[in-house]
Design a protein that fits this description.
Length: 195
């Protein structure tokens, strides 16, 4: 009888392990896809920055290129750039903040990457950054139309592309090179289409 009970416990434990695996495997693969997605977005971000001009670029020439991130995100949904990569000869530092109030001097921000936030929070952020030398970037549906300069999206072919809000760019103190507007799959939104 004891061996019979032991056999049932083993079967039950095996059943529990199988159930746990069946529950967690789909989440692991989604997480891995998100990790790959954000690696691609990170690579795109570096390329976009390399063809962007900041008004005060010469002032920041010898300073670290600072990418600030704000909003909720998972570990898989994180912009990350390898240490050996630079932008315009400047080493890159990524700093996550909870609020723009955490930044002593907004002029030190080169890029502000916006993760998941409410539209109300976005409005407050864009009000503080619109006249500045800051490239705003996001990957939230509709945020490009709300005023983020570069907004990543997944197209119908499951590929990552980006939209450019031309009006938001013109209000800022940055300039995107025309090759970004001609990039295959990119979309231009806003009323000022003249390059």
């Amino acid at each position: 009888m004891y061996s019979n009970l032991k056999s049932h416990i083993k079967t039950y434990n095996l059943f529990i392990i199988v159930v746990i695996l069946l529950i967690t495997i789909p989440f692991v693969s989604v997480s891995q896809n998100k990790t790959i997605e954000y690696k691609v977005k990170s690579a795109y971000l570096v390329k976009i920055c390399k063809v962007t001009t900041w008004k005060n670029e010469s002032y920041k020439k010898n300073k670290t290129f600072k990418i600030y991130t704000i909003g909720e995100h998972t570990k898989a949904e994180t912009i990350s750039i390898k240490n050996n990569i630079s932008i315009k000869g400047r080493s890159i530092k990524i700093i996550h903040i909870d609020s723009l109030n955490d930044v002593e001097n907004l002029d030190l921000i080169d890029v502000l990457y916006i993760y998941k936030i409410s539209k109300h929070e976005l409005k407050n952020i864009l009000d503080k950054t619109k006249d500045r030398d800051i490239l705003t970037v996001s990957d939230n549906d509709g945020f490009g139309e709300l005023g983020v300069i570069i907004n990543f999206f997944i197209n119908n072919n499951n590929k990552i592309n980006f939209e450019i809000n031309r009006d938001a760019e013109l209000k800022s103190k940055i300039k995107l090179k025309s090759q970004l507007y001609n990039f295959s799959g990119s979309k231009i939104i806003g009323n000022n289409y003249n390059l």
